Structures are given as C-alpha cells and as structure tokens.
Amino acid sequence: MNTTLSEVKIINLPKIEDPRGNLSFIEEEKHIPFKIERTYWIYDVPGGQVRGGHAFKNQLEFIVALSGSFDVVIDDGVNKQIYSLNRSYYGLYIPAGLWRQMQNFSTNSLAMVLSSTEFSEADYIREYPDFLNYKGL
Ligand code: TYD
C-alpha cells in the first residue's frame, strides 16, 4: 500500500449561512469519496491525551471537528504532516495505508469520524514497526 501524504486532503463542506445559525452537511460519495458504513466520535478527551496512533489497511476516513479543535498528524512512513481541525464546515479525508494520530484536543472538543467500513480489528496496524514493514520501508 503505497499511499502518500499527497492523497490526504482537506475537503470543504457546504455551509448554509443563516442569521439563525449556520448549517453544514455531508452526502456520501458526493462531498466525500466513499460510502459511509460507520460513524463514531471522540469526546471528553482529557488534556494532553493522544488518540488513534495506528493505520488502516482498507478503511477510508473523513474527520470533522464538530466542536473545538484538535490536530491530526498523518505519516506515510517517510513524511509527516499536521492538520489542525477547528471548524465544522470542513474535514480531513484520509485514505487507507497511512499512520494517523489525533492530539492537542481542546476542552469540550468533539471529533466526528466517518468511515468507509464496519469496525474490524483486523484492519488495524497498531505497531509502528509493523506499519513501516507494511509500507516496505
Ligand atoms: P481505537 O480505534 O483503537 O482508538 P484509539 O486508537 O484512539 O485507541 O478504538 C478504541 C477501542 O474502541 C478499541 O477497543 C476498539 C473499539 N472500537 C469499536 O468497538 N468500534 C469502533 O467503531 C471504533 C472506532 C473503536
């Protein structure tokens, strides 16, 4: 799996501005490039904690900071890039085959993750040396 950082991208979502409050939405295969099989969210993260240090073999993801802010560190085994997510009208598309970690969560932040697959432990690569091996590095 030779996915590189260049395939990761911020995707802007529709934003319907209204004096009563703004509205954004996501339609599968239209605003994001996959069908949504699962949605999960990460919340109540204590200060300084790090989540999601792992890679997926098949799962595609789209991460939105619905509230607050956090950083997503993406690593293709050679290079790393940090994306700061802090608005609910855009998100980060992450293809399979990349190591990703979430950190620097603000108080009361809410991370929504849309996934292209059902939960499968077998899809995880949890050890960094195994990830480098998987990438042939
Ligand atoms: P995990 O993805 O390993 O999060 P992190 O890398 O931040 O620790 O998920 C934590 C636990 O939750 C793990 O035991 C698997 C379980 N889990 C599910 O059962 N279903 C899910 O959809 C997700 C994302 C996790």
Task: Give a quick summary of the entry.
With 137 residues, this protein is mainly beta.
What can you see in these coordinates?
Helices cover 5% and strands 41% of the residues. By secondary structure, it is mainly beta. Strands 1-9-6-11-4 form a 5-stranded antiparallel beta sheet, with no helix packed on it. The termini are close together. It binds thymidine-5'-diphosphate. Residues 38, 40, 51-52, 54, 119 line the site of thymidine-5'-diphosphate.
Please describe the topology of this protein.
Blueprint: E1 9-12, E2 15-16, E3 23-24, E4 38-42, E5 51-56, E6 61-67, E7 70-75, E8 80-85, E9 90-94, E10 99-103, E11 110-115, E12 124-125, H1 128-134
Antiparallel strand pairs: 1-9, 2-3, 4-11, 5-10, 5-12, 6-9, 6-11, 7-8, 7-10
The chain binds thymidine-5'-diphosphate.
Residues 38, 40, 51-52, 54, 119 line the site of thymidine-5'-diphosphate (TYD).
Output the keywords.
mainly beta, binds thymidine-5'-diphosphate, 5-stranded antiparallel sheet, 1 helix, 137 residues
Q: How many strands, what sense, and barrel or not for the largest sheet? A: 5 strands, antiparallel
Mean pLDDT: 97
Estimated helix fraction: under 10%
Note the overall shape.
globular
